[in-house]
Amino acid sequence: MYYLYILKCADRSLYTGICVDLAKRLWQHNSSALGAKYTRARRPVKLIYSRRFRNRSTASRAEAGIKSLSRAQKLALIKAH
């Protein structure tokens, strides 16, 4: 199982990623050197959207689609969820 997630950073920016263990990855983004370089500079981060996928391929395609959206479109997606 893979998770697609969107985080809201302390500077109000949005970060999108995929992972296998959502709780562990959120902890890494907030507390560990293993978090993404982008989020390490913008802590704390808050999980605002997640969706499960059966495989990495599908999750990666969905991630690419979300990353191509504007901020307004991402916020609309989150609100609709």
From TrEMBL:
<dbReference type="InterPro" id="IPR050190">
    <property type="entry name" value="UPF0213_domain"/>
</dbReference>
<dbReference type="InterPro" id="IPR000305">
    <property type="entry name" value="GIY-YIG_endonuc"/>
</dbReference>
<dbReference type="InterPro" id="IPR035901">
    <property type="entry name" value="GIY-YIG_endonuc_sf"/>
</dbReference>
<comment type="similarity">
    <text>Belongs to the UPF0213 family.</text>
</comment>
<feature type="domain" description="GIY-YIG">
    <location>
        <begin position="1"/>
        <end position="76"/>
    </location>
</feature>
<dbReference type="Pfam" id="PF01541">
    <property type="entry name" value="GIY-YIG"/>
</dbReference>
<protein>
    <recommendedName>
        <fullName>GIY-YIG domain-containing protein</fullName>
    </recommendedName>
</protein>
